[in-house]
Design a protein that fits this description.
single chain, 4-stranded mixed β-sheet
Length: 124
Amino acid sequence: MTQIHTFLMFTGEAEKAVNLYVSLFPNSRVLEVKRNGEGANATTLYRFELNGVEYRALDSPPVHAFTFTPSMSLFVECETEAEIDRLYAALHEKALMPLGSYGFSKKFGWVNDRFGVSWQLNLA
């Protein structure tokens, strides 16, 4: 069966981002780091798991005319209030929806992290 993975492209900070994400979630680890090429055009591909789900990330040295957008986000169901508070504090660089009570959730927050990746955090 064909597998589908979320793929995140960074320009110079993939290693920092992957290491942060792996440190925040249980059952998470870096599976593979593959460096391709040398010099200014070298890329690094990361395969990693967050709570057992595999993701891919690429460090691409060229600056592109695009970056991450909140229309594509990682949605995290948190089991405890302590967990959502911890993740919000660790990932919050810019609040799209501050941590709070909304009609669809008793506690929810939507943030962009310092790498530009968008996270929706929901207390289940």
